[in-house]
Amino acid sequence: MDWRSVSNWTAASTEVGRRGVSSIPKSKSSAATPAGSELFDQVRAPLTRVTSLDVSREAGVSQSAVSRAFTPGGKISAATRQRVMLAAQKLGYQPNALARSLATQRSGIVALIVGELQNPFYPQALTQLAQALETRGKRALLITHDPARELQETLDAARSYQIEAAIVFPTRLNSGQLPRQAPSLDVPVLFFNRRLSGLNVLSVTCDNYAGGVLAAELLLRAGARQLAFVGGDPDTSTHRDRLSGFSERLSHAGVELLGSPAQWFTYEWGFQATLDLHGVGKHRAGKLPDGIFAANDIIAFGVLDALRQLGRAVPNEVSVIGFDDIQEAGWQAYQLTTIRQPLRAMIQDTLSVLDDPPSSPGSARLHPPHVIWRSTVAGQPPEGEV
């Protein structure tokens, strides 16, 4: 670009601001300078917004047909939809989501309220849920929850975005932050993978109690009798339910739980708890665990690495099982046998509940987990397990 092109573009820009595009006369110099003409078009283009009416004229269809073409599940033939999409692409049309929400009184926004996301299970769940919402023509709005605040405050903040629903991922919402009463909002509020005892709220969760029972049965079947549970945050329903299922199944088999240390759902805690169970740094006399159930896969990774440091062979000396089946559980370094949460089914149920909320939420909607067999539990996989 030479100085004359810059001069032409600057003059055009000044005139646009002063008089508007339509009143600017075409100069000979700008017509003769391709670069200047191109820049002028770039200045003018954003001032002319393509509307659905323009698309309808280009495609030869009604304006309502254009609206249906851009509405997921809209009643319109494939041929007409294609004509609309081709016309929209040609004109550079983008639907105005704000205008649509004003017209329909529905924003299409679902708030996903999250706390700390150290466990990769939750980012995975958030990603899949956001994708599922998008296929339904909705958008996810991610809002972080500060544990120091009341949950109701965070929900009230989300409400200012005209949300249609809120899904709470309370990864560290323990008894200190639990609402004293059911959250109050004029849209559905659903808790994902948490049960809130004593509160009449919508909840979709894995059957964590059943998962604990499964873990106990696998370890007992492997021949383990000195069993320990390495838990996470003891105030969370996931920790309590998994421990309850595990310990009650052991009790039924006449096996006493060797220990159940609990603190955090972290790798570091899993590592330290395993050292503690082996009396490292202490004068601990007693039996060593030959089977360990970790409250989630991240804890299990810490357990496995601590056992390596202690020189104990997995699974010949110690069997280890986790919970969640995050992607890293299948890494060659771990090959962790674990309890998989039925994430896809939980997400589909969540969306179904939000589409048609029950008049009375009642108890949590539970989804059964299943075993993912790899190489950290002794013996062969149960029949029918993978």
Describe the structure.
This protein has 386 residues and is α/β, with parallel strands linked by helices. The chain folds into three domains: 3-101, lambda repressor-like DNA-binding domains (434 Repressor (Amino-terminal Domain), Orthogonal Bundle), CATH 1.10.260.40; 108-203, Response regulator (Rossmann fold); 208-347 and 362-372, Rossmann fold. The chain is built from 14 helices and twelve strands. It has helices spanning 3-19, 28-32, 34-44, 52-59, 63-69, 78-91, 97-104, 121-135, 151-159, 208-221, 237-252, 267-277, 297-310, 343-355; strands at residues 109-114, 139-144, 165-169, 189-192, 202-206, 227-230, 257-259, 291-294, 319-324, 338-340, 365-367, 370-372. The chain has a six-stranded parallel beta sheet, with helices on both faces. A six-stranded mixed beta sheet has the order 7-6-8-9-10-12, with helices on both faces. Helix 1 (3-19) runs parallel beside helix 3 and helix 10 packs across helix 11. The radius of gyration is 29 Å and the shape is elongated. The termini are far apart.
